Structure formats: C-alpha cells, structure tokens
Amino acid sequence: MSRKPEDRTLDPSRLIPTVAVSRRSMLQAIGVSGTAAVLGGGLASAAVAATAPQPHVQTEPGAQSLRLKINGTAMTLQVDPRTTLLDALRERVQLTGTKKGCDHGQCGACTVHVNGRRVNSCLSFALMHEGDEVTTIEGLGAPGRLHPVQAAFVEHDAYQCGYCTSGQIMSAVALAKEPCGASDADVKEAMSGNICRCGAYSNILAAIQQTRKA
C-alpha cells in the first residue's frame, strides 16, 4: 500500500505575523528612519521619541487660593485641597530645609512653627492654615547669624547625617516656650517626637540644655 507523500509546503501565515499598518504609521516610520540616517544615534533617538504620544499636562482644576506669612513674607499660593503643609512648603515655595521623613507624623523631621507653636507639617492640610504665620528652618537663622540653638548644635556636633536636624532644631526652639522641667529626662520626654536614626541623642540633649541654661 503506497503512502501519500507528506505535504511539506509551509503556510506563510505561520511565519509572518499579520500586522495592521496604516498609511499614517507607515509615513511616520519612513520619516523617522530617514531622520535616523541623516542625524545619527543620539538625535535619531530624539526623533523617535518625538513621534510617541505625549502626555497631556493638566493644571490643577480644583486648586484654591491660600494666604500665608512664611518666614515673615506674605505669600499667596494656589494649592490642591489635598496638599499638606509640608508639600506646599517644599514644592510650592522651595523651602526644602523642612524634610519629609516618615510622612506619618512619627519622626518629626517635618517640624515647623505655626503661629509660634511646633507642628508636624506632614499631618495637616495647607488650606487649614489660611492666614497663619509659618516659620521654617530657613527663617530661623542664617550663616553668620545663627539662632542660639543652631549654634549650640554646631558646637556640640549634634547631628550626623543631618536629615532630622532641622526638625530637631525647630522643636528645641519651640521647647523654650513650653512648660518643661529642667532635668535631662524632662527634655528627652519633650523631644521624644523627634527621631534621630543616627543616634546622636546625647549631643542633641547637650545642645538643648546649653541654650536653656544660657
């Protein structure tokens, strides 16, 4: 019994995937490839990127006006209602000395003064502070004119990486106006909301106590 020879003819559809090519995409591809031949590597990449869909940049339609006095200067900001005071200071006013650490009110790196009292700026919305006076580390002192607490921190080497330092200093300055005992234990308790991951607590305590006794 003879066997029918096996048909080894290949179906072209199995080898070449079907691609839908529009006239527009074909012209774009030709234009980009021509540009690549003329411009070369780096500029060709830019030409390719130019043909990609560009993101639509939107303004904040729900932004509201906010008036603040920041470090003695009256300002009017346009902020989204969800913007925290911390983000408004850092992103809208470019006062980046106030640090974003945990963003949950647990580390104290974002401490600023609002109407003379220390607050964790990551925990309150900016719009809650309409008309308030805000002081950040930039408004506390300047090179050659340091606040006494800043000078004491330098003298006692009360920092290592420095990330928590601005919050530590802002809390220490506010502490002078708060009811707090004279002992080291009292100061530690009052400063417990400010975390130093480097562990420079003994030097921080020495700096604070020096200014309190001055």
Describe it.
The protein has 214 residues and is α+β, with helices and mostly antiparallel strands. The chain has one domain: Ubiquitin-like (UB roll) (Roll). The protein contains eight helices and five strands; from the N terminus they run αααββαβββαααα. The protein has a five-stranded mixed β-sheet with strand order 2-1-5-3-4, sandwiched between helices. A hairpin with a 2-residue loop joins strand 1 and strand 2. Helix 2 runs antiparallel to helix 3 (41-51) and helix 5 (148-155) crosses helix 8 (201-213). The model is unreliable at 12-21 and 29-59 (pLDDT under 50).
**Number of contiguous helices:** 8
Class from secondary-structure proportions = alpha+beta
CATH architecture: Roll
| The CATH top-level class label | Alpha Beta
Strand order within the widest sheet?
A: 2-1-5-3-4
**Main beta sheet: strand number and arrangement?**
5 strands, mixed
| Low-confidence runs of at least 5 consecutive residues | 12-21, 29-59
Shape type: elongated
Indicate the percent of residues in helices. Answer: 25-40%
Total count of domains: 1
Please report the total strand number as a whole number: 5
Terminal CA distance = 115 Å
The overall average pLDDT, rounded, is 81
Give the helices and strands, then pairings.
Layout: H1 12-15, H2 23-39, H3 41-51, E1 64-70, E2 73-79, H4 85-92, E3 111-114, E4 117-120, E5 133-135, H5 148-155, H6 165-175, H7 184-190, H8 201-213
Parallel strand pairs: 1-5
Antiparallel strand pairs: 1-2, 3-4, 3-5
Helix pairs in contact: 2-3, 5-8
